[in-house]
Design brief:
Strand content: 25-35%
Order of helices and strands: EEHEHHEEHEE
Largest sheet: 5 strands, antiparallel
Low-confidence stretches: 1-21, 30-34, 162-173
Distance between the termini: 45 Å
Number of helices: 4
Strand order of the largest sheet: 3-4-5-7-6
Structural class: alpha+beta
Number of strands: 7
Shape: globular
Mean pLDDT: 77
Length: 173
Amino acid sequence: MRQQPVLIEEYGSLALLTLVTHRNDRRVNVDIQPALLRERFYPRSRQTVRPARQFAAETLHAWGVTCRHDVLLCVSELATNALLHGVPPGRGYRLRMLRYEGTVRVEVHDSGSGRPRIAGRDPGAEGGRGLLLVAAVADRWGAVARLPGKAVWCEFAVGPAATVGAGEPGDGL
């Protein structure tokens, strides 16, 4: 069986691998996936939160969603939570974005155990507010078990998906 070549993307000291086809060197994660589903895998490193947020911003722009900056905040928080609590050494996390029926859904999949929850925190604590922020800005959020691990998701109301790619940016809101 012929092995798929990879494209290496550099992020500081990180290198992310992206599959490309043997006939075309376009990145699979950007150019070949269906317009209303995009995903990317990131290795276990805090340096991947920024590229994940950039990928989300590019996706929203491609879909004509221009005024939901709270989506990017939630991508950052869910990716950070996955890295801190859900990604064992040697593993990574997957950021998946879906657009359907007037909704943008963000999912962060990891292979760690445990269920995410909003915990009561000391107001003076430096951390522990990620899911609280997600719950405050997203229209809905939750988590589902998968093997291995879980997917933590949040959803945002936007205009109808049928308007994606039509008209000026932002018309889909």
